[in-house]
Amino acid sequence: MSPSAYHRDVAALTAAHNRRLSSLDPDLGPVPVPDVDGARAVLVARGAVGIWSHQEVHDADLSALWGGRSQDLLAVRSGHGIAPVLGCLLDQLDLIRGTAAPDGDAEVVVRLPALEPGVAPVLLERGLRPVSQTALLRVAPEVPATEEDAVGTVGTRAATPDDVDAVAALLREMHESDVAWGSGYLRPTTASYLRRLAEEACARDGWTWIAEEGGAPIGVVSLQGAEEAAWATGATSLQPAHYLGLMAVTATARRHGTGRRLVALAHRAAAERGARAIVLDHAALSPLSATFWHRRGYRPLWTTWVRRG
């Protein structure tokens, strides 16, 4: 049956899926009805569907920093739990997927709620591993600066366009660390795209902050408001939400409270602007990222599982 024949069933299953997500984790945002017409196939397993879509990512695309050039994405919709049907859907996908990209720069991608029970063994048995996590913080009322935030040899200030070179270098260091922990890629365009991100962050007046020591930038954090980051903040039902898109501290300045001070600035700004939540994405397997964000009060909301090749 052609994918378009499934329109009504997929819409109904998505509604049931969202009701189940609300019960599983009330902080989860609803997922959209998948684009059935643009799908390569609609896979069926015991009252659930998996919508297989494909996209080619070129080096000219910013997303090439974080994903393979050839991506097969599986969106699962089920009103009765995912674990019992996930293996069947993935096995069907593997049977009909065909040959991966000739250079091996290909991925199978599945994004699931972090609290979805029973899926980890199914995914691991089929070669998928957690690559990134979307994490959530419920924003507390504004907290005044403490003495710890205000003293020390490290100072903080708003970013300016003069900081672009330093921020680009910080982002490069962070990205290379993420790649080393299995999240992201180094591309020929990596340096130019990280500079573009630095330019955008430094032009975001009142949303980006620098930590510096002796006049030298050693860290950066940047927020995006609900409208600018609508593509990301829909991950949570808590609205309005802000997106913490950038946070990097040079290796020599870590473990001295620099990142903590920067994040505290972002948290206060979000509270002042009425945000109910902050979401961010971090490398799932990095012991630096996962530990740091957990200590700052964030918890996993969604997990992106990937198999390369």
From TrEMBL:
Keyword Acyltransferase: yes
Name of this chain's protein: N-acetyltransferase domain-containing protein
Domain N-acetyltransferase: 154-309
PANTHER family named in the record: AMINOALKYLPHOSPHONATE N-ACETYLTRANSFERASE-RELATED-RELATED
InterPro entries according to UniProt: Acyl_CoA_acyltransferase, Bact_Acetyltransf, GNAT_dom
Keyword check for Acyltransferase: yes
Key words of the record: Acyltransferase, Transferase
GO molecular function annotation: acyltransferase activity, transferring groups other than amino-acyl groups
